[in-house]
Specification:
Helix content: 40-55%
Structural class: alpha/beta
Number of helices: 6
Radius of gyration: 19 Å
Number of domains: 2
Shape: elongated
Strand order of the largest sheet: 1-2-3-4
Number of strands: 4
Largest sheet: 4 strands, parallel
Strand content: 15-25%
Length: 148
């Protein structure tokens, strides 16, 4: 595989967040509001983030083992135009398998992405131009893609 460009100022920052929407029953929501009102949490989001982090900590070993077994990148993986051009010149393709955030630079043409990316499996977020996402959406390339 071609060597990845590890320094790229156009790539996404690790602290970026993705917005999610959840539906809660009135009793659960009332309990959350009570804990916020009593000062245990600063707001609803604080409680929900804390609860999610606690559950992820409980299951951390399973996550680690699964990431290793599936040979996934844990965290951020960014592909620049230079990375993909190097793969094309070497007649190689990338299999993108990421738990976290995978991104493809905005200046990557869809034809280059389609020619150099064999498959995409992202558990988390995938940032790429709409044209690149469309080019990778063929049945031979796109695995599970969670972009929420």
């Amino acid at each position: 595989m071609p060597k990845l460009n590890l320094v790229d100022t156009s790539r996404p920052k690790g602290g970026e967040t993705e917005k999610i929407t959840i539906n809660l029953g009135p009793v659960d929501l009332g309990q959350i509001d009570l804990l916020v009102e009593e000062g245990f949490y600063s707001n609803r989001t604080d409680l929900i983030r804390t609860a999610i982090r606690n559950q992820l900590a409980v299951h951390a070993q399973v996550v680690t083992e699964t990431v290793t077994r599936r040979a996934m990148v844990l965290g951020l993986q960014h592909f620049s135009r230079r990375d993909l051009e190097a793969a094309q010149a070497a007649h190689e393709q990338f299999d993108i398998h990421v738990l976290g955030l995978a991104s493809i630079a905005a200046d990557v043409p869809p034809e280059l992405a389609a020619a150099t990316i064999a498959s995409v499996v992202v558990l988390g977020a995938f940032h790429a131009s709409p044209a690149v996402k469309a080019a990778l959406a063929g049945p031979h390339q796109l695995g599970e893609l969670f972009d929420r």
